Amino acid sequence: MPLTVTSTLDAPDAVPGNGTCETAPGNAICTLRAAVQEANAFPGADTINLPAAVYALTRTGSDNTAVVGDLDVTSDLVLVGENRATTIIDGGNQFGLFDAQNGATLSVAHMTLQHGRSIESGYGGAISFSNAIVFVNDVTATDNVALLGGGAFGGQASYTGGVFGLTIDNSLIHNNQTPNGSGGGIYVDIPDFLGNIGQLTIRNTVISGNQAFSFAGGIRALMSAQISGTTIVDNYASLAGGAFFGRATAITNTTIASNRALQASGLFNEAGGMLTLTDSVVRDNDATQSGGGVFNKGSMHLNRVTVSGNRGTESSGGGIINDGPLLIENSTINGNRSADGAGIANATQGRLTISNSTFSGNISSGTGGGISNVGQARLYNATIVANQASSGGGIYYQSMGSFGDLLEARNSIIAGNVSANSNPDCQGILTSFGHNLIESAQGCTIVGDTTGNISGQPAGVGSLQNNGGATLTHALLAGSPALDSGNPAGCVGDSGAPLVTDQRGETRPIDGDGNGTSVCDRGAYESVLIVAPSVTVTATGSPTASATATASATATPTWLPTTTATSIPSATATLIPYPYPTPPLVTATSVPASPVPSATATPIPDPTPPLATATSVPASPTPRTSATQTPTGRQPAALVSVVLRSNPSHRVAGESEILLTMELVNRGLGSASNTTVKLPFDPALVTVMDARFSQPSAWVSAVDTSGLTIESGLLTPMGGIVTATIRLRSAANLPAELLLQRATYRWEDAAQVGAGRSNQLILAGGPTNDQRSLYDVERLVGPDGADAPLFRSAVFAPNEPVSAWITTGAAQTFALGEFAADSDGAAVLALQDDALLTEDATVVLYGQWTRFTARYSVDLTP
C-alpha cells in the first residue's frame, strides 16, 4: 500500500489498519508516525513517500507500537525521501528513529537520519533491528548515539531461524557515537549458536568521524560481511579505530585511513575471523600502542594491498601485527613506524607467508624495521629493502624455543636496510631455500640450502614508485645481481606451484639479461630486458662494457650497483621531491567519472572509491643513512609540517576549556635538529593552562603577549613526530572573531633552515549550541562565470594532500582525484564538466594531514 506523508507534525494514526493515514477521522493529515502505524497494521509490504521537509520526532515514551518514542517497524516497509539534503528525520537527541523487528524488512532511501538516541534497545541510534533485515541506500546518518552499539545502525539476532541482515549502498555514516559500547557507526552481531543466518553488505559508502568507547569506531561486525568501494576514515575507539570483524569477511577496493585507537587503529580481525582484503589501501592510521594499520588474530589474506604510513607509537606493528595465519601476496608494506616490527610484527602464534611483496621504508626505533618475527615467517620472492631499525633493519628474528618458530627465505632480496647495531639486513637465524640476495649477513646466521645465495653485493633496485600494477614496487636496474638469478627450476609460492606473475601481475619468468634463457628474478619484481646505456659492440655483436661503466661506489647509494652516475642513473636522481608536483587546480574531466550504482541484488562493479588510493602518488623509499647516499654531496633536507586541531572544533563559549592538539611531522629525508613553532593569539581572549608533549625533547619556551612558543627538539626523517596537547581557557566575554591564528614555524637541518605555516583553525567565539564540525568551502566566481565555478577552502596546511569528490543531486558520486593545497593552505577546485553541473550537488574536500572535511552544497545549474 502506498502512503504519502502530508505533515511534519509528530502525531499517531487515528485508526491503524483502516487503510487511511490520518491523525483524526476525516482530517487528511498523514504524519510519518501515522504512516508507519498504518503500514504495520496493513498486511503486505507498504511504501511511504516522504516529501522534502524536516520530520522531528517529539512524542516521548517507550512502546512497541510506534505511538510514542521511536518508530517501531513490524511489517515490511519501504521509506523513500526526495534526497539527502532535503528529506530529514530528526530524533532531537531524545530517542532512536526506527526499530525494525518481528521478521520485518525495512528499506530506507534518499534521506538524512540524524540526532537519534537509542535508549530502548541500546543499539542503532538511527535504525535498531533485531530479527529483521534492513536496506539503506543514498542515506546520510549523522550525529546519532546508541548506548551499547551501532551509533547509526545496530542490532543483534536473538533466536534460531530468524532473519537478520544489513545492506548499505551509496551512503555517508558520519559523526555517530557509542559512549558505552562498540561500533560507533555500525554494530551487527549474530551469536555463534545461531549459525550464519545473515550478512552485512556495504558498497560505495563513506564511514567517517564515528567514535566508540570500547571497540570499533567505524564498524563492528560479528557476522559475515562483504565491503566494497568504501572509505573508512577518521574514526576512533580504544580498540580497532576503523573496523572490527569476527567472521568470514571480504573487503575489496576500500580505503581504511587516518583512524585512531590505542590498538589496531585501522583494521582488527579477531580470533575465528576469516578476512580477505583485496585491491585496497590501509594508510595513515595511528595507534597509541600497537597495530597501527592491521591487527590479525584470526586468518587473513592480503592481495594487491598497500599498507602505508601507519604508526604503532609505543609498541609493535606499525603496519601490521599478526598473531594468526596471514598470507601477504602482491602487496606493498611501506613507510610505517613503530617501536618494534614497523612493517609487520609477527607474534608467537603468527604464521606469516609473504609472496611477491615489498617491504620498504619502514622505520622501527627498536627491532625489525621491515619484519620483527617471533613466530613462523616464510618469504617467497619478497623484496625487503630500505627499512631501518636499531637492530635488524630488514628482518629481526628471535627464536622463542616453542611453537615451531622459524624464518625461511627463497628467491628473495634482503638488502639496503639500515641498523644502528651492525646488523642492517638480518638479525637471527635464517633458513635459506636458495637463491636469496642478502647484502649484509652480519648479525644473521644463514643455514639450510644456500645454493645460489649472493651476499656482499647491493641489490641494484630503483626507488619505490609506480612501475605498473596495483602497488608500488622497486624495479631492478641494469646490472642488478637479482636479474635472471632466481632458482633455474622456477620460482614457487607457498603452495609449491610456480609463480607465473610478479607483484605487478607481469609475466614471470622473463629473459631479463638478454642471454636467451628465461629465469625468474629474485624479489617481487620481474624485469624486462635492460640494456646499460654505456656499452661498446664488437664485430660479433656481443656487448662489452666500456671503461666508463666502472667507477667507485662513493658516488651512488649503497643499494645500487657499483657503477658511475653517468652509466646508470642513481635512485636518488629519480626521487620525486615533496611536495609532489601536482597542479594547483584539478578539473572534473581529469578523472574518469564513475557513477555509483543503485542498490540491487545483482553483483555490481566496484567504482573508484571517493578517496584516492596511495598508489595515485608515487612514494619515495627511505635512503640508507650513509655518507654515500646523496651523489651530489648535499645533505638530505628535512621537510616539516605543523597541523592544528581543537576541541571544540568551531565555536567556543566564554570561560570554556579548549583542548588544542599540535602535531609536528618531519616528512623529509633528513633530520630536523629543532623546530620552533609560534602560535599567535590575544592573551586577553585566551589563557594557556598547561601543555604536554609526546617526546621529552619538546617544551614551551615562551608564553607572552604575542602568544605561545614551542620547541620540538629532534625530528627524525620520514615521519618523525612530536605531538603537543595544550589546554587553553577562553575569556568570559568573547567577540565573534577568530581566537587562534595560523602557527608559523622554522626548522633547522644539515641542509638549510626551513620555514612554514600551519593550517587555519576556524575557532571563534560564539553560541555554545553551534556544533558545526564541517568546514565550509567558499564558492568563487570562475573565469567563465557560473559555467566553471571554483571552490576554495583555506583551512588546510600548506601543500597538504587533498582528496576531492562530488555527489550530484541524482545520487551519483564522482571521484575528482587527489591534489595539493597551495603554499597558503588553500585547496582550489575547478568544475569544468557540464555533466557535473546539476542541481543540489555537494562538493567535498578532505585533507589527509589535518583530517578536515570541507563540504559545500549548492545549486550548480548552469
Distance between the termini: 39 Å
* CA-based shape: globular
> What's the arrangement of strands in the largest beta sheet?
11-14-18-22-26-30-27-23-19-15
Overall mean pLDDT score?
80
Biggest sheet details? 10 strands, parallel, barrel
What share of residues are in beta strands? 35-45%
Structural class: mainly beta
Portion of residues within helices? under 10%
Description:
The protein is mainly β and 862 residues long. Among the domains are: 307-576, no CATH class; 588-617 and 774-858, Immunoglobulin-like (Sandwich); 640-765, Immunoglobulin-like (Sandwich). It is 1% helix and 41% strand. The chain contains 1 helix and 77 strands. Strands 11-14-18-22-26-30-27-23-19-15 form a 10-stranded parallel β-barrel. Strands 24-28-31-34-38-42 form a 6-stranded parallel β-sheet, with no helix packed on it. A hairpin with a 5-residue loop joins strand 76 and strand 77. The longest helix has 10 residues, at 32-41. It is globular. Mean pLDDT is 80; it is low at 530-634 and 768-774.
